[in-house]
Amino acid sequence: MTAITLAKGVTMGLRAAMERDSKVVVMGEDVGKLGGVFRVTDGLQKDFGEDRVIDTPLAESGILGTAVGLAMRGYRPVCEIQFDGFVYPAYDQIVSQVAKMHFRSRGRLPMPIVIRIPFGGGIGAVEHHSESPEAYFAHTAGLKVVACSNPVDSYWMIQQSIESNDPIVFLEPKRRYWEKGDLDVDVAPDPLFSSRLMREGTDATVLAYGPMVKTALEAATAAADEGKSVEVIDLRTLSPLDMAPVHASTRKTGRVVVVHEAPVTLGLGAEIAARITEECFYSLEAPVLRVGGFDTPYPPSRIEEDYLPDLDRVLDAVDRSLAY
Amino acid sequence: MTAITLAKGVTMGLRAAMERDSKVVVMGEDVGKLGGVFRVTDGLQKDFGEDRVIDTPLAESGILGTAVGLAMRGYRPVCEIQFDGFVYPAYDQIVSQVAKMHFRSRGRLPMPIVIRIPFGGGIGAVEHHSESPEAYFAHTAGLKVVACSNPVDSYWMIQQSIESNDPIVFLEPKRRYWEKGDLDVDVAPDPLFSSRLMREGTDATVLAYGPMVKTALEAATAAADEGKSVEVIDLRTLSPLDMAPVHASTRKTGRVVVVHEAPVTLGLGAEIAARITEECFYSLEAPVLRVGGFDTPYPPSRIEEDYLPDLDRVLDAVDRSLAY
Amino acid sequence: MSSAGFGSGLDEVFGPDRGDGPELIQLLTPEGERVEHPEFAFDLGDEAILGFYRDLVMTRRIDTEATALQRQGELGIWASLLGQEAAQIGSGRAMRDQDYAFPTYREHGVAWCRGVDPLHLLGLFRGVDQGGWDPIADKFNLYTIVIGAQTLHATGYAMGLQRDGVIGTGDPDRDSAVIAYFGDGATSQGDVNEAFIWASVFNAPVVFFCQNNQWAISEPIERQTKIPLYQRALGFGFPGLRVDGNDVLAVHAVTQAALQRAREGSGPTFVEAFTYRMGAHTTSDDPTRYRVSGDLEHWKLKDPIERVRAYLSRGGVADDSYFAGVENEADELAARLRKGCLEMPDPSPLDIFGQVYDEITPELEAQRDQFAAYLASFEPADASADEGALR
Amino acid sequence: MSSAGFGSGLDEVFGPDRGDGPELIQLLTPEGERVEHPEFAFDLGDEAILGFYRDLVMTRRIDTEATALQRQGELGIWASLLGQEAAQIGSGRAMRDQDYAFPTYREHGVAWCRGVDPLHLLGLFRGVDQGGWDPIADKFNLYTIVIGAQTLHATGYAMGLQRDGVIGTGDPDRDSAVIAYFGDGATSQGDVNEAFIWASVFNAPVVFFCQNNQWAISEPIERQTKIPLYQRALGFGFPGLRVDGNDVLAVHAVTQAALQRAREGSGPTFVEAFTYRMGAHTTSDDPTRYRVSGDLEHWKLKDPIERVRAYLSRGGVADDSYFAGVENEADELAARLRKGCLEMPDPSPLDIFGQVYDEITPELEAQRDQFAAYLASFEPADASADEGALR
Ligand SMILES: Cc1ncc(C[n+]2csc(CCOP(=O)(O)OP(=O)(O)O)c2C)c(N)n1
Ligand SMILES: Cc1ncc(C[n+]2csc(CCOP(=O)(O)OP(=O)(O)O)c2C)c(N)n1
Ligand SMILES: [Mg+2]
Ligand SMILES: [Mg+2]
User: Could you list the active site residues of B?
Assistant: First the structure.
């Protein structure tokens, strides 16, 4: 049992995966000596060498495009995108090549590629460093998308993602990189593509993932003080979605609030609301409410706390749901 | 009153816009002598010259990136993306530059850019020529997204889009390019950002846009034979969405089906279902049902008719909705 | 100040370029004469040339038959390689078994050299699948339609070869290289230039084989570059060469040297095969809208097959019976392809759900089952309606 | 076959490159001696050099003050230009009013030359906005953070100049050019190479000004190229030059010539300003993790300001009182910036809704009104809580 940060969890997970399988290679900008701008790959190049921890030229399309070729040759590339806002130059390679290769080849060319993206805001950064692009990938058939929210998950989920033979967009909540948690490597992890009940409740259900899980749990605690019993689920997997626990919770509480940092329009909340309504139509006491970023570009950091969903906006939504 | 095709409508609209404003430039691959692979820019280079109808090098990021610079210099670029599947190399320029420039500069750098994309399937094409990427753009704050479904709209909407000072993704349903309609230039057009009631009905509402509008209308006709009265709305604008007529129709019928070619998960149908449920919770007799492409890459063309929503699948959804 | 201050020799390389400059490497003239080149020599005998002739003829026949099938509505579209046979056979035959090729959508001749059944090519353009061959077994990747994307895949694969230790060992059966095919238009894509950077920086064993057929659909080469394309490589720090793309001997010699250089660990090479797209871009294209027939006449005289036939017959290496034999073989192949194409079964719409992932998702299983139940509720009549769609 | 077959002279350009090769254009040595160059001459007098000195000192002071403000938590981050002052002042002062500059996030010295109030730069890095100056009025675009994207914007803007007929008219107040700034790392991005292609094919009046400061965060130049960067341009058919980026006179002379060439309609030029990033990549970076101090010492001797000061004092062009005067001015500027930064008001969260589009959407109006009502339901206490977030 050791206390580690979420960032450290990814580092340890990467190390374990690289020790287990010599085909695992880490590639990206500044992942070598620097250990990445968030130090997530710290020490890996020293121990595994420049052939397995590759400082690449400064071009994201090149990173993903060469990762495709390495995967065809039997390697398992783990690509680091330095910040969420810099994944777009690689979008064509991700959407038209990585995502479609297995389908195009009818399984002959699997793409065991992990695309690590530190995502979300709240760190006082300049433009392009606080994006939440998950919906762009969850809408793309052929990709799988997961988001970790705590150190234990970051340690296990990165290893499970690397073991998967399908391409996975692995989202790391950068504002939570320094949050601590206790890791017991002897406790077996949940399956990668499963959501998790984090807190039981009876009045309303709050769904969140990545950085918003902590916010949702804080909101639930605050709600308890006001005598409201709020259930919280960490979705963990965004594509595929693990809806069974969500539907069960919905049937119990009848009221659901979905929270994410990404703009509300066509964010994950839209899909989740649509599915819940289809599945649990007669159980819903209120429409599924969505709390997310506004439909604007990410704002200057001095006002990002107004833009980002926080405890109060979650509680506000819970109250609006209860008012139905 | 002249009968024209949808493609011709765009051509005539482009020509009218270029005659009206010398700052309008058309740029893209093969838009010059060839007139584009769909002949939509046919004859424009001959009449407006190579400075205003620009055959560009083969690079989509370059097309959008230089369009940004031209816009900064006061031009109004109309960029043609040859096929939907080839817009992704330009994704970074579209999402991080075109969409954010007005916000970043707080209005000092407007981006009057139109991005024309022939989209959707049904033409028996090879891979990457039948994509429906609209959700990727509708989720992006700073862009506006419209889709025409008939020759009259294609003629007016392209002109209205070029007149807009905001960047607009202009979607052209390629499988409907050769559909004919009567254009009377003396009849004033509807506002660009408005949806339109195409057929009145009382039992259920079908929402569609682009290529699926025709399919929806055919389904409504077939339903009528079976004694079901189906209302059909052409959304026309995907971002912003014009929900007022949709909500009105929902309150009337209580049952809604959304149809598009794009994969269902996180497609436009998700957002529309979520909004309708929030707005018309107590009017809904059934959950909003979605008919779309499956969550797979676009299939080989020999089976695309199975993949694409057709009359039968729309009717099937209407029946399922009525069964609630 | 004088623009000489901007580096010497630029004026020479500027301006329209007819490709017959001194830099063009040629070993067999359009008239079928063998000629010498100071750097490159064709190191195989007439046996090999007889084989090349057969390859060229078979490839062209595949192309003609496919075009005919498309005209008859059996294929959705076809991308003809007419005029580019020598560039593809010469380079394809320069590969060793262990080398790996990354084609565009037009490399039917390379596919032939790799032993890919042409029926698979027809299947792709008919729309029954997206490439039925086994890219790993055939060491021939699936066709890539997004312009330029495959050049990065090729470079990444080459980086894999480096990590596998199959470069520069001196063992001819072990040392491997990659060849990436792309067109003149593709050189404008960011991906292709990024591939040049990766290959140069990592010294990757990859040959960038550009078939400059002078056109990107309707756009002439002037829309993509102001200087001869092979010179692009100099800006990235590796060698660039221009070879007569209609001369199968020169293409073979140059490509073999470039591949060997890669296998030895000396890094990437850019080979510009200077040729011409004799047909339309695809069967959907109409070149009369944008180019003059004069060019065509000029290039007809440089036909890649005629010069080999001229060489073989003049030297008495082959007689009419040989040529007739090849023709027969081509006829038989064409007949087999036509038959196979017409008999090709459509895929089952239910199969696609299982092809998206290595591990299917519960969501996709549900969609498949729902769709299966939905389909079951119809008459088979519906199936034939689908068929209609393609035509 | 000999690898000579792969084009001559490649070996010379290969291999690590210390940048003091013959190709480096220099007019003022690190010791402050004027030297001649066959192609380029500094055509202004000592008055101009006095001005440059002031520019260099003021720019460095802006940088030091900003770094201090960041350390004190007043800025979220800062990208220091320490060591690159000459590259930016020399090129910035070569521009005419009508020329337009496209900067990265580090061009504080160019901003100074364009008359942008440094307070606007602080505002961006403090997070109150994304660039408060007027890019059109100042002919200085907003900072671009996505590496390389601005090079295409610059090229497109240059194509606009061509269409506006303000190229090659011979009127010095009319003929215009564009200058695109980017770093050594940026040269690997597809966008930058596409910009080279566009500029070359359309002969666009743009100068590609690359500050090769040897580092892209932790990655040395060897990760981006195997040959000197200025040679990249040769692969695209336009001139490339390498200038001593720490020599303000040489940078001015070369940039002016390149800009003039563009204005005259002779097309693009690639200028590599060979310099060194003396500080961390940004205030968030820790260079001790990836580079040795030895290099720093080597480059300290080439300081861009010291050599100008040495020249001015040796030649008696300026005395201590002049230098002291500039120092005073710098101190006053620093004080004004500090005061202005601390007093900078935060934006109103409600403003952002109106800034997304020229024509706001009903959806955004609704979101704004709902959010306004929501905010109104709180104590002002909450506002200060938000402030806390940045620190
Ligand atoms: C990224 C992308 N943009 C556009 C297209 C459409 N397209 C298909 S082929 C082609 C021209 C390619 O020219 P070239 O690279 O010279 O190859 P060629 O067809 O001449 O063999 C274009 C523009 C595409 N397939 N991919
Ligand atoms: C597309 C993109 N990828 C990654 C980054 C993160 N990043 C910011 S600066 C930088 C290094 C840039 O190096 P260089 O071009 O040499 O400019 P310098 O910082 O040295 O001035 C990187 C990788 C980015 N801003 N944009
Ligand atoms: Mg071509
Ligand atoms: Mg640098």
Answer: 129
Distance CA D224, CA A138 (A): 33
Evaluate whether B102 touches B166 at the Cβ level (below 8 Å). yes
Size of chain B in residues? 324
Rounded to an integer, what distance in angstroms lies between the CA atom of residue B307 and that of residue B318?
18
The pLDDT-based confidence of C391 (bands split at 50, 70, 90) is: very low
User: Which of B58, B116, B174 to probe ligand 1 with, by most ligand atoms within 8 A of CB?
Assistant: B58
State whether residue C348 sits within 8 Å of chain A by CB: no
Compute CA distances C85 → B106, C54, C94, C112, C302, whole Å. Answer: 56, 11, 14, 11, 12
| pLDDT at residue D380, as a whole number | 61
Question: Which chains have 3 or more CB–CB distances shorter than 8 Å to chain B?
Answer: A, C, D
- pLDDT tens digits along B263-315: 999 999 999 999 999 999 999 999 999 999 999 999 999 999 999 999 999 99
**Distance from the Cα of residue A131 to its chain's centroid:** 12
The DSSP result for B130-178, as a single string, is S---HHHHHTSTT-EEEE--SHHHHHHHHHHHHH-SS-EEEEEEGGGTT
Rg (CA), chain C: 23
**What local confidence, expressed as pLDDT, does residue C8 receive?**
36
Is D355 in contact with B106 (Cβ distance < 8 A)?
yes
Q: What is the mean pLDDT of chain C?
A: 93
Coil, helix or strand at residue A186: coil
Q: Are A27 and A54 in contact (CB under 8 A)?
A: yes
CA distance A179 to A215: 13
ipTM over 0.85: yes
Q: For residue C223, which residues of chain D lie inside 8 Å, CB to CB?
A: 201
Interface probe for B, chosen from D133, D194, D197, D348 (most Cβ of B below 10 Å), is: D194
D71: contact with A, CB 8 A cutoff: no
The whole-angstrom separation of Cα A49 and Cα A65 is: 22
Rounded to the nearest angstrom, the minimum Cα separation between D349 and chain A is 6
Return d(Cα B44, Cα C340) in angstroms, integer.
44
Around ligand 2, the residues with Cβ closer than 6 Å are: A 29, 58, 60, 82, 86, 89; D 106, 145-147, 183-186, 213, 215-217, 277, 281
- Model confidence at C32: pLDDT above 70: yes
Q: Which residue has the tokens 């006095």?
A: D50
Range with lowest mean pLDDT among A186-195, B64-73, C4-13: C4-13
List A residues 238-297 in contact with C (Cβ-Cβ < 8 A). 239-241
The answer to whether the CB of B294 falls within 8 A of the CB of C367 is: yes
Q: Which residues of B touch A61 (CB under 8 A)?
A: 89
Within the 36-75 window of chain B, which residues sit less than 8 Å (CB to CB) from chain A?
61
- Edge-to-edge strands, sheet with C206-212: C24-25, C240-244, C269-274, C206-212, C178-183, C100-102
Cβ contacts (< 8 Å) between A88 and chain B: which residues?
91-92, 95-96
Measured in Å, residue A11 CA sits from the centre of ligand 4 at: 27
Predicted confidence at residue C293, as pLDDT, reads 85
Tell which phi-psi region holds residue B80, choosing left (phi > 0), alpha (psi between -120 and 50) or beta: beta
φ, ψ (nearest 5 deg) of residue D200: -70, -50
Strand partners, A5: A180
Query: Residue D185's pLDDT band (boundaries 50, 70, 90)?
Result: very high
Instruction: For chain D, list residues whose CB is within 8 angstroms of any CB belonging to chain C.
Output: 1-7, 10, 13-14, 39-41, 187-191, 193-194, 197, 200-201, 222-227, 231-241, 257, 261, 266, 269
What is the count of residue pairs from C and D with beta carbons less than 8 Å apart?
Answer: 126
Crossing angle for the helix pair C118-126 and C46-71, to the nearest 10 degrees: 20
Mean pLDDT of A262-279: 98
